[in-house]
């Protein structure tokens, strides 16, 4: 209930707050010197004590204009030594070569220089392929020396990473034999209840 009353009072007071806002703002801006914000009570107390203890000093500083400081301010000039900024040409020329850009082999642009201790995808595939061709000669230690990587890294690569291989299923035709099922040529009647189920009335499997 209290929140509703607060909201209702704000809605009622809003037109009064916004009444002649522009005129009041122009009246404040038309003043030569705006009204300063009030000081904190402790600051105001210190200033009052200073004025009471030195009335002549405070009055003289406020009334007298310091010509020395004014002349020094007139001698201060700010010059910029930066080079002028030349606007760049926004209009870009069309490329001279308009051929389609081919996508990289491995899906990304390979770096021109490989950091020591690192491998690219191409180098990793070559490493795995060499080991697959001859695991004795191209073991983990020799491959680590060849590609300047740590032997533990080459061991992990050969252990956990493999190249994709395609296995084609064998072309063997299998004969699916159909299961025998029971067919009913005719159902026995009440008269044939005592007769043996032979001939057409028998179950064929």
UniProtKB/TrEMBL annotation:
This is NADH dehydrogenase [ubiquinone] 1 alpha subcomplex assembly factor 4. InterPro entries: NDUFAF4 (IPR009622). It comes from Daphnia magna.
């Amino acid at each position: 209930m209290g929140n509703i009353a607060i909201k209702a009072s704000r809605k009622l007071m809003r037109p009064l707050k916004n009444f002649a806002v522009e005129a009041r703002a122009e009246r404040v801006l038309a003043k030569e010197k705006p009204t300063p914000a009030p000081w904190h009570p402790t600051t105001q107390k210190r200033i009052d004590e200073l004025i009471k203890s030195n009335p002549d000093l405070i009055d003289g500083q406020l009334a007298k204009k310091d010509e020395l400081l004014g002349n020094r301010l007139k001698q201060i000039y700010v010059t910029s030594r930066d080079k002028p900024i030349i606007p760049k040409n926004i209009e870009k020329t069309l490329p001279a070569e308009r051929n389609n850009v081919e996508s990289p082999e491995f899906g990304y642009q390979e770096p021109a220089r490989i950091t020591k201790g690192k491998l690219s995808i191409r180098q990793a595939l070559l490493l795995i392929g060499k080991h697959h061709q001859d695991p004795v000669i191209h073991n983990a230690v020799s491959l680590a020396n060849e590609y300047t990587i740590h032997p533990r890294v080459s061991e992990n690569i050969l252990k956990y990473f493999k190249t994709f291989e395609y296995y084609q299923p064998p072309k063997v035709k299998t004969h699916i034999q159909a299961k025998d099922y029971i067919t009913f040529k005719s159902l026995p009647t009440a008269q044939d209840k005592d007769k043996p189920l032979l001939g057409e009335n028998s179950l064929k499997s």
